[in-house]
């Protein structure tokens, strides 16, 4: 697919914004956090428990995502809930899912062999599976 032809000035204007936005996906912890929150609204406690983040690291990551405007918060009594606020996050995550976690082919022998040797599904679901690197696949490349 060839990207649309845009004037160089227009690309230059948007390149800094795009680079800053993509930086939000550049660490495994933030990527997993965005994947997890994108599935449904999550409480801080739920995020901390499911992703096994230490509280200071989680607070730092959530603050950065809040400051960038890609997540929103909702307070209910003493709990704070997070959800995705920027539809571009979902678009990027869907693209990453397509690129890194293609659906298995059920009719090919190669697909069946790969499926038989692949690890169990990740507890965070399909969105998070692409972020798990199977060492055996990495070594066979």
Give an overview of the whole structure.
The chain is 59% helix and 10% strand. With 141 residues, the protein is mainly alpha-helical. A three-stranded antiparallel sheet has the order 1-3-2. The longest helix is centred in the first third of the chain and has 16 residues, at 8-23. 14% of the residues are buried. Residues 122-141 have low confidence and may be disordered.
SSE blueprint and pairings:
Layout: H1 8-23, H2 28-39, E1 42-43, H3 44-51, H4 55-68, E2 71-76, E3 79-84, H5 87-100, H6 109-117, H7 126-129, H8 135-140
Pfam families: HTH_5
Protein name: ArsR/SmtB family transcription factor
Organism: Rhizobium helianthi
- Through-space gap between termini: 25 Å
Q: What is the overall number of helices?
A: 8
Share of β-strand residues: 5-15%
Radius of gyration: 18 Å
Series of H and E elements: HHEHHEEHHHH
- Tell me the major beta sheet: 3 strands, antiparallel
| Extended strand count | 3
Proportion of residues in helical segments: 55-70%
**Structural class category:** mainly alpha
From the spread of the alpha carbons, the general shape counts as: globular
> Largest sheet, order of strands side by side?
1-3-2
What is the residue-averaged pLDDT?
Answer: 80
Low-confidence stretches: 122-141
Which features characterize this protein?
single chain, 141 residues, mainly alpha, 8 helices, 3 strands, 59% helix, globular
Brief overview, please?
This protein is mainly alpha-helical.
């Amino acid at each position: 697919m060839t990207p649309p032809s845009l004037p160089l000035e227009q690309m230059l204007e948007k390149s800094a914004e795009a680079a800053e936005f993509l930086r939000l996906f550049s660490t495994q912890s933030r990527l997993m956090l965005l994947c997890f929150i994108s599935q449904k609204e999550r409480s801080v406690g739920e995020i901390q428990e499911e992703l096994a983040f230490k509280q200071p690291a989680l607070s730092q990551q959530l603050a950065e995502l809040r400051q960038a405007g890609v997540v929103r918060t909702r307070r209910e009594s003493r709990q704070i809930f997070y959800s995705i606020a920027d539809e571009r996050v979902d678009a990027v995550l869907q693209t990453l899912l397509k690129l890194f976690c293609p659906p298995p082919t059920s009719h090919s022998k190669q697909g069946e062999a790969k499926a038989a040797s692949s690890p169990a599904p990740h507890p965070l679901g399909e969105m998070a599976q692409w972020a798990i690197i199977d060492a055996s696949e990495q070594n066979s490349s």
